[in-house]
Amino acid sequence: MESTLTDEDWKTCFAQLGPALLLFARRWTNSRADAEDIVQDAFVRFWRRQHSIENRALLYATVRSTALDRLRSDQRRARREAAVALDGAKHWEPQFTTLDEGQQMLAAAVERLPDEQQEVVVLKIWNDLTFAEIAQILAISPNTAASRYRYALSALKKAMQPYE
Q1: How far apart are CA 64 and CA 42, in angstroms?
Q2: Gap between the Cα atoms of 112 and 115, Å rounded
Q3: How many Å apart are CA 158 and CA 105, to the nearest integer?
Q4: Against a cut of 0.70, is the pTM above it?
Q5: Which helix (H) or strand (E) element contains residue 86?
Q6: What pLDDT band is residue 141 in, cutting at 50, 70 and 90?
């Protein structure tokens, strides 16, 4: 470990090795911007551990490790998004088969709700989910999901009162 390195030493090292590290990082990415992010992340890791800037092999290994970590992370995210998309296919938006005047008014009132309330109403009523499941899907607490549901029902009740 080297403790006598100055900021200028690190800047010089980055300026000298940056282009070569960027070229190396491009092996694992589809864009220059992603490769730049990888090099920056790797260099920060290397700097935080105060490795010797003379140990270029370790710096390249850090870039490789960072790139592979990013690649695995992107693959996990893609799998999660695909799973959510498949799971989301089970959920459907409210559709009224017979459109009488009352149903049209209700559909319009649901559409006027704020997005956060509309999501909860659709998930709760038309998809028959619990507040715990809704909370997990929307990354909110179950209490927040229940509150949004209550506010939505109140707004729908007010919207429908003139038509009762």
Answers
A1: 8
A2: 8
A3: 12
A4: no
A5: helix 56-88
A6: very high
CA distances from 72 to 28, 101, 154 (A): 11, 52, 45
pLDDT tens digit sequence for 48-102: 888 877 888 888 888 899 999 998 888 888 888 777 766 655 555 555 555 677 7
Domains in the chain and their CATH numbers? 7-86 (1.10.1740), 101-163 (1.10.10.10)
The span from the CA of 57 to the CA of 90, in Å, is 50
* pLDDT at 153 (0 to 100): 93
Q: Are 117 and 157 in contact (CB under 8 A)?
A: no
Tell me which amino acid residue 30 is. Answer: N
Three-state DSSP class for residue 70: helix
Q: What is the pLDDT of residue 2?
A: 44
Angstrom distance (rounded) from CA 89 to CA 86: 5
Structure token pair of residue 115: 């997005």
Rounded Cα gap, residues 43 and 58, in angstroms: 11
Average pLDDT, integer, range 124-130: 82
**At 113, is the secondary structure helix, strand, or coil?**
coil
Residues, the chain, total?
Answer: 164
Helix 7-25 and helix 56-88: axis angle, to 10°? 60
